[in-house]
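In response to the reviewer comment on reproducibility (Comment 2.3), we provide here a single inverse folding case reported in full, input and output, so that an independent group could reproduce the run without further information from us. The structure tokens appear first.
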């Protein structure tokens, strides 16, 4: 088997978002809550503490698991429907959908109003579960739980779509057997 034969190509990759009812309990993202992204760097790292003990052989005899860190950025084109739960999470409020009349728009159009949260009067917004699928439907799926949007940045230029980059921090990340979309 040649080296790299099990590599998964990044085209046709998707990100799915769902709100958690209990913090850290993973919720599978629905097929209609997925969006395409330009790049992502969400990764899990683990600090291991190696204890220098006297032992009868070379190497480390005791390793203690330290802090697990799951964080990274997701960059995507800002879309009026895709990725709204990320914006809701960073603003702490709610999303109100409404349908405009055909007489106003020339057709039916769904609009969304994002309300800012009052951080002094309410609890923190619900944590998110993210599903990251790398590759096509046969690719690898990663389940990210207890996620929050730490920071979001918008960038725009003439004749180009508005780009959004969300910095994500999370509690845990595992590979998932379930898929979406």
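Designed residues, in position order:
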């Amino acid at each position: 088997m040649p080296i790299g034969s099990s590599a998964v190509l990044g085209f046709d990759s998707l990100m799915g978002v769902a709100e958690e009812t209990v913090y850290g309990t993973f919720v599978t993202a629905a097929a209609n809550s997925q969006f395409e992204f330009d790049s992502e760097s969400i990764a899990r790292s683990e600090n291991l503490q190696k204890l220098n003990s006297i032992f009868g052989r070379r190497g480390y005899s005791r390793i203690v698991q330290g802090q697990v860190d799951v964080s990274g950025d997701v960059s995507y084109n800002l879309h009026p429907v895709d990725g709204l739960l990320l914006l809701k999470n960073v603003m702490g409020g709610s999303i109100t959908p409404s349908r405009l009349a055909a007489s106003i728009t020339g057709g039916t159009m769904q609009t969304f109003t994002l309300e800012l949260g009052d951080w002094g009067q309410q609890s923190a917004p619900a944590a998110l579960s993210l599903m990251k699928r790398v590759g096509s439907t046969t690719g690898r799926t990663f389940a990210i739980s207890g996620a929050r949007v730490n920071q979001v940045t918008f960038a725009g230029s003439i004749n180009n779509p508005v780009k959004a980059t969300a910095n994500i921090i999370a509690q845990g990340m595992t590979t998932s057997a379930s898929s979406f979309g």
